[in-house]
């Protein structure tokens, strides 16, 4: 039995990867195991923090007097051996702290919440007691320490031992429980008791008859009452008489309880699909850690390949993990997985409540779910014995987390594949350049689905030069050919999808007299007009203010709205096509839980003929009656200062085009653009991923960009611009001699959006091919910047950043 535990503590202002030794009280020595959460005292005073036990042993790492563990939070480890090892690797590879990684891997409700409390001591004078506590035994510190005077007064009282500051660790996780009913009498005792009942005790008789049918099983009280027509008061009577026992039953919050699943059967695969499934299944059987790139055009049936390969893993008694970019945006995918695997599926994504996420997580941890579908953080799902990991739309940037730990789910998936000896399938119609380049080199094995299912043709794509269109209809968002096509679809009772590309784009307010643009007071960008709330909002910090009628700068009255929002497009379209039934899908209409799925279901049922939306409608939709796709503004993303701008535009156009003509009727796509000759748009027009890949690789080679170079971005941010800038110049001096001479260091420069939420951002980008000293250097940087963080300066390290904005 171990007496000492090495604990990773949660101290935000003083993070370290070094565990602390604590003594395990004798009573818990048999119980405490690595991976459990504990509450421990930390530092001087009465501070309590949560921590994770990393290991148990008999030798402390430190030979002074050891403090004791205060409480054990879990009955069983919440991080298993794999997860503990993963935490360590994740921290090292993303240059973040292990505790942050451990917390990222677990449902949010398992994070500790700290409450700072003020308590009287035995020496508290009555006057002090009344002033600070009234008649309360303790008060929250923040409630009384409201001014700096109050704080200093309290500190003095604390020094004199007249008050005590105490930290409480609160566990936020709540299990949902229900009463269950269990019989305490056996069959013969029940019959005997029935005989003793007074005449007319109908309820009690019904209760006994019900208990007789249970055969030792426990059922929920609600269920019991309904089935045997017994009221809860009678249950309590039965309990008092010793006929039954009421027990706490745990119930799971099921996010999909109300939605029925239509069970589906495996489809007969076409030749290309069959090759892919065979290869993947073989790797599953052989426990091979092969990474496959499943490169399949839109509508080629990649999903069916995933499902049948996952079924193969399950058939061998293993589990399967499937990652999707953001499930609330692709409800169809969840339906397909649940349709195939039913109750074996657990779903994890940001649209669930914290309680639902916690319950799904526990179902997985207990082995009650063998299939997990989820967005980015589902890559940490505590599945055991994984047989296959699938990552759909592997090129999507939502797989990368923006905050520490800045991990990419693909990297974690590959790590787990090594741990579990299982293959990974990366699927996309438009793979990221990095992935496709690795397949070229043979690091990944490429599987190709070159044709749509049943040899259906890919849609015809027409490019419309908006410079010419604007000369004729200056004010309209719709070119003449697109409008004709829309009318034609209405006449033929077919459906259309219209996408407004909103990347780097917004509707803003401008003064025609002086040119003033209303900007966010905290950030470096213009505010966006929101007609639903009649306010101007900042999409970065959430700042909101009324729409101005008068120019704040020149007090003129010529204030006008510019740019195009989905609402404005919808209004215009209603005027142009009064007979159309339109559904609009954007951040405003999908804010409510489940709204996204509802709108899509409505469109799918044919209630509407036109779906207008932002990028969120580009992926995954599979509606057979959609024969027209229109992209209203293809190029708003092209001008962004980011070397991936062309790649993103190509991916988006290809994905959205792929929504057209997926079933029997042929599809047509119209792309409206001001850059009709841009290569990203031309290659998308011809569905030519391979052509785009070769061209873009040349561009990247010329510019020394990924995948030819690796990149790391370091940012500094501070409320004071000079502080952030100065720190970055110092950092440059510090870095240069530590890195190889061939390594390129760009910057420091202000970020393209230099100010967000009142903080100024500066960045340095390191580009390298081989840099043996980099890991050690960045680790040193991570630890050295701890002290500065406390003064408000924040340093961020981002390995292979996906955004340079
Ligand atoms: N072997 C098959 N036989 C018949 N129909 C199939 C077969 N495989 C897939 N399908 C159907 O073809 C359609 C397109 O498949 P799926 O949605 O999987 O394409 P995808 O490759 O994921 O496309 P995207 O990248 O555009 O999302 C679906 O309706 C699917 O049910
Ligand atoms: Zn802002
Ligand atoms: Zn003005």
TrEMBL record:
UniProt-recorded Gene Ontology molecular function terms: hydrolase activity
Residues in Helicase ATP-binding domain copies: 283-449
Signal sequence, renumbered to the chain: none
Record's catalysed reaction(s): ATP + H2O = ADP + phosphate + H(+); Couples ATP hydrolysis with the unwinding of duplex DNA by translocating in the 3'-5' direction
Keywords noted in UniProt: ATP-binding, DNA replication, DNA-binding, Helicase, Hydrolase, Isomerase, Metal-binding, Nucleotide-binding, Primosome, Zinc
UniProt-annotated binding residues for Zn(2+) 2: 520, 523, 538, 541
PROSITE patterns to which the protein is assigned, alphabetical: HELICASE_ATP_BIND_1, HELICASE_CTER
InterPro entries on file: DEAD/DEAH_box_helicase_dom, Helicase_ATP-bd, Helicase_C-like, P-loop_NTPase, PriA, PriA_3primeBD, PriA_3primeBD_sf, PriA_C
Top-level EC class as recorded in UniProt: isomerase
Binding site for Zn(2+) 1: 511, 514, 551, 554
All residue ranges annotated as the Helicase C-terminal domain in the record: 546-700
EC number: 5.6.2.4
Source taxon at top rank: Bacteria
Pfam families listed in its UniProt record: DEAD, Helicase_C, PriA_3primeBD, PriA_C, Zn_ribbon_PriA
Cofactor requirement: Zn(2+)
Cofactor note: Binds 2 zinc ions per subunit.
Stated family: Belongs to the helicase family. PriA subfamily.
PANTHER family according to UniProt: PRIMOSOMAL PROTEIN N (PTHR30580:SF0)
Subunit structure comment from the entry: Component of the replication restart primosome.
Role of this protein: Initiates the restart of stalled replication forks, which reloads the replicative helicase on sites other than the origin of replication. Recognizes and binds to abandoned replication forks and remodels them to uncover a helicase loading site. Promotes assembly of the primosome at these replication forks.
Protein name stated in the entry: Replication restart protein PriA
Designated gene of the protein: priA
